[in-house]
């Protein structure tokens, strides 16, 4: 009782009751600024610690803690609203994609021939390959080699005929040389014979000239004697006739000498004149025939050698063609990695059938889809930056294709149709070496550089 009376005497005034805070209007509840003002009024309306009694400290601190907790919740809500509101605003203010993925072109390797697949080396999915690497080998054990066999038979036949042609040519050349020797001997003998005949005719001419002179002298004596009557007229006529005969004999000898000289000149030039043969003796004719035969055989041998050389070249070409048709090495034209194996060793394939797909790591691109407003602001050659969602280094590139709502290229590892949030598609070619790591499938977004518009 004493304590209560003392307490009553010490603090006779009743404790002030805090004024109720008016409830916020519906408009204030929905407005963030109204909520902040209401929170501020509730926190600082009755903040008078210097005049408050000690007995009311605990209830006020409890109420203040509840107000702080409520204010913290409101602040967190405002922060969430600001963050989720900033993302659309940033998408509106800058030219960026809705979706983007790191992509690369595919190279499909097909078999040029039909046959059975054999593994050139151990190749599995995601195997990295250098340019020119032999991946698979296709073997056709039933290739057509009829033409190759025919060419080889023709070459063998000509090679077998060549020795006989060479032997015939050698024999003809030897016979031609022997006949030429005989013709030369005959010509030399004929020349000597004609020279001897000319000498003989010249001797006959000299004898005929001597007889003519003797007959002429006898006729002159007989003529003198006939005038004096010492010789008869008959004797004078006989002597006159002998003079005429000697003159004609000398003239005939000189004609024979001219004919012999003509024969000698012809023989020295290779032509022979006579009554029992034509201008060419049999040895010379045979030598010419044998020379012609040797020429024909030489031409046949040269043609045979030419045919053998041509067939050898054709056999080489046909062997290369047959090798191409019987076996084919499947090599990678670019550096990359295996994206998809479409066959296996031991499988029979047809010509033109796809065997595997290789990811071209040197041709990395970025496919993205954008809104219509962003698409209409883009042009080929614009700079772009790919920002990966995993926080990696950005990749810089250039816009190389604007397909819009049209169908995207089909030779990409990831079909651009998989990006379905927006129908407008953009392709960006990378300029960085980091993109050649072939990390196809990394997602992110592409930010396009703003283009300055002319006033």
What does this structure look like?
- A 6-stranded antiparallel barrel has the order 1-8-11-10-9-12. The protein has a 4-stranded antiparallel beta sheet with strand order 5-4-2-7.
- With 455 residues, the chain is an alpha+beta fold.
- The model is unreliable at 1-30 and 46-55 (pLDDT under 50).
- α5 (146-228) packs antiparallel against α6 and α5 runs antiparallel to α7.
- β9 and β10 form a beta hairpin.
- The chain has helices spanning 2-10, 26-30, 32-44, 57-93, 146-228, 233-268, 282-326, 372-377, and strands spanning 99-110, 115-119, 128-129, 134-139, 327-331, 336-341, 348-349, 354-370, 383-388, 395-404, 424-430, 443-448.
- It is rod-shaped, with a radius of gyration of 64 Å.
In a nutshell, what does this entry contain?
With 455 residues, the protein is of the alpha+beta class.
Question: Ranges with pLDDT <50 over ≥5 residues?
Answer: 1-30, 46-55
In order across it, which strands form the biggest sheet?
Answer: 1-8-11-10-9-12
Q: Let me know the largest β-sheet.
A: 6 strands, antiparallel, barrel
Shape: rod-shaped
Extended strand count: 12
Query: Whole-number radius of gyration?
Result: 64 Å
Sketch the topology as an H/E string, one letter per element.
HHHHEEEEHHHEEEEHEEEE
N-to-C CA distance? 91 Å
Average pLDDT for all residues: 78
User: Would you tell me the structural class of the helices and strands?
Assistant: alpha+beta
